[in-house]
Amino acid sequence: MTDLKSRLAAGGDLLLLPGKLLHQGECRTGLGVLIRGGRFQDIDDAEALCARHPELDPLYLPDHLMMPGFIDSHTHLTQSLGKSLVFGEPSEIFRRIWVPLESSLNERLVYLSAKLAALECLRGGFTAAVDAGTRSDGCIGALASAARETGLRSVVGYICNDLGGTAKVADQATILARAEQHLAAWEGDPLIHPSLAVSIPEVATDRMLARVSGLSAEAGVVFQSHVNEHLAAVERSLVARGQRPLEHLASIGALGPHVLIAHSTLVTPQELNLLRDSGTAVAYNPVASVWKGNAIAPALQMEALGIRFGLGTDGTRADGFRLMDAGESLQRAGFGLATGDSSCGGGWLWLDAATSRAADAAGLGAVTGDIALGLAADFLLVDLDRPEFTPSHDLIWELVRYGSRDQIDAVFTQGKLRLWQGWPLDWDARALMAEVRELSGSAIAGAGIQRIHPVASSHRAEALQKQAEPK
């Protein structure tokens, strides 16, 4: 294994001959892949590929699956310092926890939070992630730098709220000027892809929503927003505008193929038609629904209607395999059991939704999400010599049900080995974690966070005390 690690990390051209290759929706044997200049240069029968490139020493990987890296279609890289503070809390935790925390972070803390989150993404097999934008003031460069240093391909949103929900709210002209600067700042960057965002529709004027969506379309980037996630937000929109949030965005022309809507858990049949007809994409965040949501996005119905969607974590936990399992499990629990649907996507849908479909939703379909000629060499080497994959009868289903991040030996982005068995090769992850531990306590204490429930140990003590009280 040491020799394998060294050869993978050496750089330059790589001629890989994996035991199995996830290619064109199938786990196939007998194929080889040439990686050159950070891209998939050639894919063919292993023998033919080796014959075409006699100058290269092929690297045999008989016990490994080579597969595309996962794409997280919706996350929050600057929320990693909070983590379990949101556990057991009622919905709309962003108002009481995330907005205060992110707004209080200085540039160093934004950098540390984003780098820690990016490390977790890569450890979980995510080679790319869509960040919804940080609410801290003037620190987006630190976020992007942290992500780039880890090697995580990132779609980085710039928040354009003009009615609140960020550390500082500038005037419309300033926001739009900064948005255009953000779009220009990362032009040509191999790993950072700019995006524009409005946190939720109610924190921006109609003019801003329409302008930012239009600006994104003109620039060929994704416009992001959290929409129809919580019942309270849907009802506030009905009271304020007489429309649900998704209906409101449609009415002002802010939907379209360039738009990525996070959640869409509370959608009516009419709103599903709006998504379908506009070509708008959805980030289906199943773990977020379990941990803090009001409902489950009807992903199977979206699939039937041809609505584009990808899987996202919403910053919950960064494990691509567990995300696929959650995506299928929630559809089964929420819809399949009631209708007798025992396949619920047949396994393949969730693998697609975590890779190629998520890349399409994130605006990265021409860049990554598959092992295909010309795409960036963002991929995983998964160890199949494990009890979970023995015997193997249907590897795609097995990846969804039995896969976990500890089975990932290697994580590559842009043709470079970033992690080996969970740890980076060219920077000190444990030093990062030590600094986070040192600084996170004071950061949380000074953020003005409001939690409704106590931590688990205190909650347990309260429950036991109530049990002991005389009846």
Short recap of the structure:
By secondary structure, the chain is α/β, with parallel strands linked by helices.
Summarize the helices and strands and which ones pair or pack.
Layout: H1 2-9, E1 14-23, E2 26-28, E3 31-36, E4 39-45, H2 46-52, E5 59-68, E6 70-75, H3 93-104, H4 107-123, E7 126-131, H5 140-150, E8 153-159, H6 172-185, E9 192-197, H7 206-219, E10 223-227, H8 231-241, H9 245-251, E11 259-263, H10 269-278, E12 281-284, H11 286-292, H12 299-305, E13 309-311, H13 320-339, H14 348-354, H15 356-361, E14 379-383, H16 395-402, E15 408-413, E16 416-420, E17 423-424, H17 429-445, H18 456-468
Parallel strand pairs: 1-5, 6-7, 7-8, 8-9, 9-10, 10-11, 11-12, 12-13
Antiparallel strand pairs: 1-2, 1-3, 3-4, 5-14, 14-15, 15-16, 16-17
Question: Any descriptors?
Answer:
hydrolase; Metal_Hydrolase; Amidohydro-rel; 20% strand; alpha/beta; Urease, subunit C, domain 1; MTA/SAH_deaminase; 471 residues
Please provide a written account of the structure.
This protein is an alpha/beta fold and 471 residues long. It has two domains: 2-69 and 372-424, Roll (Urease, subunit C, domain 1), CATH 2.30.40; 70-361, TIM Barrel (Alpha-Beta Barrel). It is built from 18 helices and 17 strands. The strands form two sheets. Strands 1, 2, 3, 4, 5, 14, 15, 16 and 17 form a nine-stranded mixed sheet that branches. The chain has an eight-stranded parallel sheet with strand order 6-7-8-9-10-11-12-13. β3 and β4 (39-45) form a beta hairpin. α4 packs parallel to α5 and α6 packs parallel to α7 (206-219). It is globular, with a radius of gyration of 22 Å. It holds the Pfam family Amidohydro_1. Keywords: Hydrolase. Residues 66-417 form the Amidohydrolase-related domain. Belongs to the metallo-dependent hydrolases superfamily. ATZ/TRZ family. One of its GO terms (molecular function) is hydrolase activity, acting on carbon-nitrogen (but not peptide) bonds.
